[in-house]
Amino acid sequence: MNASHDQPTPPLAAPTATPRMGRRRAVAVLAAAGAGALHGCRWLEPDEPDTSGFWSRSFVASDGSTLALAPLRGRPLLVNFWATWCPPCIEELPLLSSFYNENKANGWQLLGLAVDRVEPVTRFLAKTPVSFPMALAGLDGVELTRELGNAAGGLPFSVLFDASGQLRARKLGQLREHDLAAWRKQWSVA
Q: Tens of pLDDT along 4-56?
């Protein structure tokens, strides 16, 4: 995503720096994920991060189309940041698919944002499809999670927006059924 957030930038394009610089960036992402794991699975209290720029973003969807976030305002939206190299991320995807299938008729939306490269995500989704939309945040997704209150930059990381677009909950670590049930009870539409 470019700095102005007006036009999507291919988030998973090859780095313009040397291959060594690309590896350093990948190592930094893995280190950030490890730091998140050291903090353990925990709830993060909303401390009012500035989410105004969030709704103007767009991402490349797993089917190659552009997925804009602005049209997703108006109903509860659960955004899950994940990666193919993150075991807890992979473990929670079936639960998220079930949650989405059970609640989409009641106004719930779910978006998976892969903090990964296009090739592994495409391979993974071909073998293990999910029922909810997926898009690619690329390595820039780590910075986006930080903007949303994930100081450690760890994965998995999930955020819940209410129907007005207000950030209501965040969780660093694997979601469980009771987490989703509590969010559904508190933030359901109707």
A: 344 333 333 333 333 444 554 444 444 444 444 444 444 445 457 878 899 99
Task: Specify whether the CB–CB gap between 133 and 141 falls below 8 A.
Answer: no
Looking at residue 118, its amino acid is V
Chain position carrying tokens 């609640």: 103
User: How would you label 109-146 residue by residue, b for 16+ Cβ within 10 Å and e otherwise?
Assistant: bbbbbbbbbbeebbebbeeeebebbbbbbbbbbbebbe
Give the three-class secondary structure for 1. coil
Helix pair angle (87-103, 177-187), 10° resolution = 40
For residue 62, the Cα-to-chain-centroid distance in whole angstroms is 13
Cα(109)–Cα(69) distance, rounded to whole angstroms? 11
CA distance linking residue 130 with residue 111, whole number of Å: 11
* pLDDT tens digit sequence for 84-127: 999 999 999 999 999 999 999 999 999 999 999 999 999 999 99
Exposure letters 154-188 (e unless 16+ CB within 10 A, then b): bbbbbbbbbbebebebbbbbbbeeebbeebbeebe
